[in-house]
Amino acid sequence: ATPTAVMVGTGVGASLGVLIKGGQALERTHKVNCIVFDKTGTLTIGKPVIVSTRLLKDMRPREFYELVAAAEVNSEHPLAKAIVEYAKKFRREEENPVWPEAQNFESITGQGVRAVVQNKEVLVGNERLMLERNVAISIDAEEILAETEALAQTGILVAIDKELIGIICISDPLKPGAGEVISILKSMKVKSIVVTGDNWGTAKSIAKEVGIDTVIAEAKPEHKAEKVKELQAEGNIVAMVGDGINDSPALVAADVGMAIGAGTDIAIEAADIVLMKSNLEDVINAIDLSRTTFLRIR
Ligand code: ADP
Ligand code: MG
């Protein structure tokens, strides 16, 4: 392609809301044969909704959510924000409730939070958090988790003084049209993979719903980047699509990093292409644009 063609290509991209940072990024994109998608906020809407609360012990929802919110109000995680918002429903002064004070707050990346509230140790997070902190998960709880994950929901466990008290079932639906995007990519001979920090059950359910066969779950940020490098070592030209801080190492490692415009600044900075409208269809538009520019297909 001539420099003029490349300029035209990036210009058309910009007018579509596909911000391409330079000619090299545009060029690499037409060779992509494999895309790694983050789950939360990329394939899914990223606005989690609490669908049910399964209390395992004799405790009032109001008291339960007061302790949970007191711990989670200190976390920046989207799941924490959704839980705190939901907890307000159980308060009389709904608007700006004052939660009990939390001491020794700890945020455990990829697992959840811990705090001491009203002299009780509160743990809110996934199964791994409970296992690492010696909280027993009963057979009943395992069953609820399996049901939750089969529905593509995430079960967040709550333990008070090492006793499992309840499970908060949270749904984060797929973006509309996500399935179509994956099937169009397939027809373009581009393979899709999901990589997420969420648990295996939920990840597999979401992948099935969207039509992706290959899933990597319970992945830390460095695992996401390792997966990209592994695919490259197998001879693939890999794009990574993500929105979070935890996606940035993988966005940098990929041949083409694509950030969701609504994502965090760190992801946007790490990416070669920014999908300003946060639409997954723009992944296809970016590839089409690059193919048109470099393969001279009309
Ligand atoms: P991702 O954004 O890819 O889902 P994260 O690493 O942010 O991955 O989180 C992985 C998992 O850790 C979440 O699905 C959740 O189960 C748990 N988790 C992380 N932070 C919190 C939190 N503040 N409250 C409850 N659970 C959390
Ligand atoms: Mg994400």
Automatic annotation (TrEMBL):
<protein>
    <recommendedName>
        <fullName>P-type Cu(+) transporter</fullName>
    </recommendedName>
</protein>
<comment type="similarity">
    <text>Belongs to the cation transport ATPase (P-type) (TC 3.A.3) family. Type IB subfamily.</text>
</comment>
